[in-house]
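Long-time lurker. I teach an intro course on protein structure, and each term I like to show students one example going from raw sequence to a predicted 3D structure in token notation. This year I'd like something fresh instead of my usual example. Would anyone be willing to generate the tokens for the chain below so I can use it in lecture? Attribution to the forum is fine with me.
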Amino acid sequence: MYWSWTEKVARLGMSVPDSPHLLILGGTAEAARLASAARERFGSALAVTSSLAGRTRAPGALAGAVRTGGFGGVAGLVGWLRAERVGLVVDATHPFARQISANARQACDAEDVPRLIFARAPWWAESGDRWRCVSGLDTAAALLPDIARRAFLSLGSAHLSAFSGLRGVHLVVRMIDPPNGPLPLADYSIVLGRGPFDRAAEIDLLRRERIDVVVSRNSGGAATVAKLHAARTLNLPVVMIAPPAREAGECVESLEGALQWITDRLAGKEGR
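-- Reply from a regular --
Happy to contribute to a lecture. Here you go:
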């Protein structure tokens, strides 16, 4: 059962303290590391809540309080920020999680709550890579019949509908959890796995499945980069889908940068 920060305080028979409350919009490895580091560095001077979308059935343990599920749009997030007396928000969501990032910007602007984007740096092609960079899923799907017979899709389970009309290409789809029903694809198989992945194991997977092209979103980070190393080793092309533009606002790409931003606001250095 999820108990919010204020509910936990109430159950202990205490009044809500004046210490700030940090909301981490998470679901990423970066968000998990930030929650742990913030609890360690700031202790009781900062209440920490991590918010997860709830798409993964068994997420890893997180430091601090955890809530799961959507907020109900901008209005719902505004209400949650007020009810939980949130004083700081760090958006450490997946680079392709456009809606929650947009909602966070609007809600924080409406409530005058400081917001930081803790972003992953994207991947960059290296010597030996054979990337075909595209702007979206539809373009990626349209390319496949001309360049592949067996494609490895590492996209996340919610991003497969663009490939539903594809014929003549077998799609090997990697997922964290087994699907609840058939996927919206004509010809596919499923492999299950949760990152971080190992380069040697990725090479074995691509060979075993006789993959001739890898399709990936450019989400950056270390957890899934091994598939790109494997593709380079095997001289396989990669259809790389560019990330959407980030929301406006302050942004850092390191854990220490995020901790420093929190430190500055706790010290009132930004005039709050």
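Some talking points for your students: Confidence is low (pLDDT under 50) at residues 1-17. The first strand starts at residue 21 and ends at 25.
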